[in-house]
Amino acid sequence: MERPQMKAAFVAQPSTEDPAGAVGVGELPVPEAPDGWVEAEVRAGALNMHDVFTLRGIAKPAGAGPHVIGSDAAVVHNGQPFVVYPVLPADTAGRTVAHATLLPDAGHGMLAERVVVPEAHLVPKPEALSWEEAACLPTAWLTAWRMLFTKAQAGPGKLVLVQGAGGGVATAATALAVAAGATVVVTSRSAGKRERSLALGAAAALESGARLPQLADIVVETVGPATFEHSMLSTRAGGTIVVCGGSTGFTAPLHLARLFAREVTVCGSTMGTLEEFRDLVAFVDAHGIRPTVDSTADLADAGKQVGRMLAGDAFGKLCVRVA
What we know:
Helix content is 27%, strand content 28%.
């Protein structure tokens, strides 16, 4: 029996040179729900750099294509609104981190009219958030949450440096750290992004590479080689640099004398657990935080949103309206 069809954004043929052009939008079969999974209707999704990696062929989803992209979704199931925890159920066999494999890497992308997800991964959507705002939370905001509160101890009395203001993780880290009572300093090459970061509650917004008024307790590092030396220079003795990605590359020199003389901790961070995601959603709801949405496009224009991400112009999350 033929499966019903749905509209989706997908990649059939990755392109290193033109990842935005590799986005296809069209009809695909509605996936079947495995045992313990349920079908849900997607209202909105959001894009992440991981989608770019998929479109370039760096991340390779399991199974035959085409592959639906997207790991973020706000959905309706049985008439109720939810946000989807975006990673596979924990499987620690041969792994360091049990929560690192995103659903689209297993062939369950979220930028589609209908998706199937583990039922336990449906977390009630905060009523105050729009569908697009809720769709910001699963990947970038969960990443920022784990960086700040699991890998470091952000809170009152702590100075947090956020490198590369404007990205999804950076805007999330700024809002979350401010709500937790920390003092936040951001950096950016863009005067406009620095100004908008101040509106999010940052105490200072500096040009990239500028000297901080005082050394940071915690550095949120998403940029990589372009900012990593500055991150080392800007961290106090005993401080922590948390790394979750590298938008400018994945290899950076490390000043070993500064590392051991100041006893700086440099640690990696990947996504987060289901428990952390529930804590994040509850924190956002309790503190009245509204995730920053750069822009929203219809599903048919998902490729244009990828292009905006690649151009580096966005401030906050790039969202996609599905229904």
